[in-house]
Amino acid sequence: MDCETLERVRGSLMDFLGTRGLRRTIQREAIISAAFSTKDHFSAEELLDKARQIEKSVSRATVYRTLPLLVESGFLRELDLGGDVTVYDPNFVEHPTHNHLICVDCNKIIEFEDTNMELLENCITRRLGFSPASKAVKIEGHCDELKMHGSCRHQKDKAS
């Protein structure tokens, strides 16, 4: 996310937190900066590590209290990509209609957008008499890198 967009998001999030009676703190600023200065999906613990690199005083409790607020604001999405760890996606600000391919072997996540997906979703929902409120497309499969080379640079992530 470019600096201008990050500042816009930061300002909107601080306004949102203010409507909840929460004040602007160095810790919340660090969490927001850490969350939106990456395009990578992250867990709460990974966000904690990133935020502590910005501000050492960020606590685990503050991260776990702030994440649901960031999700509620609509700037951050909580994703169930399988496994036992919830991940968060900061990329919906710039790409609100993207979808995910997930490798079941190495946990690699690839985001994609395709106008054909949107057309297909619209056709399906209309045909079945639905007006979509939200959508999430997750396709699980096996990445070619592992199949072709017998190993994958993302494979180590699965064990952690």
UniProtKB/TrEMBL annotation:
Name of the protein this chain belongs to: Ferric uptake regulation protein
Compartment(s) where it occurs, according to its Swiss-Prot or TrEMBL record: Cytoplasm
Residues that bind Fe cation: H95, E118
Cofactor note: Binds 1 zinc ion per subunit.
Alphabetic keyword roster: Cytoplasm, DNA-binding, Iron, Metal-binding, Repressor, Transcription, Transcription regulation, Zinc
GO biological process, one term: regulation of secondary metabolite biosynthetic process
Ligand binding (Zn(2+)): C103, C106, C143
PANTHER family for this protein: FERRIC UPTAKE REGULATION PROTEIN, ZINC UPTAKE REGULATION PROTEIN
A Pfam family annotated for this UniProt entry: FUR
Cofactor: Zn(2+); Mn(2+); Fe(2+)
An example Gene Ontology molecular-function term: transcription cis-regulatory region binding
Entry keyword annotation includes Transcription regulation: yes
GO cellular component, one term: cytosol
Family per record: Belongs to the Fur family.
Assembly, per entry: Homodimer.
Source organism: Terrimicrobium sacchariphilum
